[in-house]
Amino acid sequence: MPSPFLASLPLAPTAAALRSDQRELVSYIEDTCQRIESLDDELQALLPEARRCERLLSEAQALQQRFPDPAQRPPLYGVLVGIKDMFHVSGFPTSAGSQLPASELTGEEASCVSKLRAAGALVLGKTVTTEMAYFEPGLTRNPHNLQYSPGGSSSGSAAAVAAGFCALALGTQTIGSTIRPAAFCGIVGFKPTYGRISEDGLILCSPSVDTVGIFTQDVAGSALAASWLCHDWRAVSLKDRPVLGIPEGPYLAQASSEGQAAFAGQVEALERAGYRVQRVPALPDISEINLRHRNLVHAEMAREHATWFARYEGLYRPRTAQAIRAGQTIKASDLAAARAGRAKLRAELEALIQRHEVDLWISPAAPGPAPEGITTTGDAIMNLPWTHAGLPAINLPAGYAANGLPLGLQVVGKYMADEQLLGWASELASVVVR
To answer: In the predicted model, what is the mean pLDDT of residues 80-106?
Structure first.
């Protein structure tokens, strides 16, 4: 039996229906508020807000008055969006999933949020995040089964989209915080090339790798949002199917046996559909890459949180505090070497792509399905090298595990080739979904 916490709400058709009045804006908001009221006490995807529906209806009325002519409406007219509580949003406090005083976590609204407002979107509210976008979970549950993790750190954003609370949500990714929760919640998660969406107005975890992520239920919706949010977005014409590369070796061995078996089935489906797949030995030094990335994150966390941690160390939860303390021991020279490793890895991957004439990398989006319980958000190990290299990546829902929870296929594009990645992703998604 399907979970009552799941609902279909793809962004592209929802936005089109709202723009054209095929879906009436006020009833859309009222229906959404009723759904949130009936389900979110258990799901815990959104931060509580008094009089949410009253605020949204007032904002919707102003939007209708501003754009009475459907032909003049902006692309995200009336679309409700969830914003991870790492972003500053005018009119909302920021807690970053922490116990720090709200007065310490203030700032100007993130430009990506302002861009969404300019596109006609309405902010549904803040979504739950792990503490400081690291590994201490919030209260959010997986909408497929409340006894399982939704992933993290963008847990509330992924769960809210899967639950149909919003058709679009923003998250972040420092290791795997967009791709992994999207996979666990059975939706599309898109992490663009590092830097293509501005990170101003965001409480940073690790500035050298932090990337704004997009959650939707549909690839077309992710492309719509990305075209508005990403710097210098370009229309592309894709005639040929991409050649897919499998990074064989110790990297893939990090997935569970179930994850590897599922991936093999996904590859077989793609080959049957006519895709050419190249098996490329890659990432032989994955253990060194993993260590380098974690040292980079910890060192930069220690520097980002230096003032707050000095004042409020006792308010940080254990895993976050441990990461910051570890970062305090990392020398500036080692941090510089870790930062330099990003470009080195990207160059190595680009050389492999050219040598083997590959267009996209494919791999499991997570080692396996979501873990049981909400004391952990799962392992981001399958996302780490692509984040370290700053490459664009997308999760495509790709079937289910033996326990009935979703699995995902991670597809990674070339540096700054986000448009091609999203252009190819729709057809890939239609092959692997089942």
So the answer is: 98
CATH class of 1-280+361-434: alpha beta
Q: Choose, from 95, 153, 208, 222, the residue flagged as catalytic.
A: 153
Q: Which of 151, 51, 76, 170 is nearest to 407 (CA)?
A: 151
> Would you kindly state where each structural domain of the chain is located, as residue ranges?
1-280+361-434
Active-site annotation holds for 208? no
Is 157 in the active site? no
H helix or E strand, kind and range, residue 245: strand 244-248
Catalytic residue of the set 157, 177, 208, 222: 177
**Residue 84 annotated in active site:** yes
Q: What is the pLDDT confidence band of residue 2, given thresholds at 50, 70 and 90? A: confident
Can you tell me the mean pLDDT for 296-323?
98
User: Is pLDDT at 21 greater than 90 in this prediction?
Assistant: yes
Residues in Cβ contact with 69 at an 8 Å cutoff, skipping those fewer than 6 apart: none
Count Cβ neighbours within 10 Å for each residue of 112-144 and write b for 16 or more, e otherwise.
Answer: bbbbbbebbbbbbbbbbbbbbbbbbbbebbbbb
Instruction: Assess contact for 27 and 17: CB atoms under 8 A.
Output: no
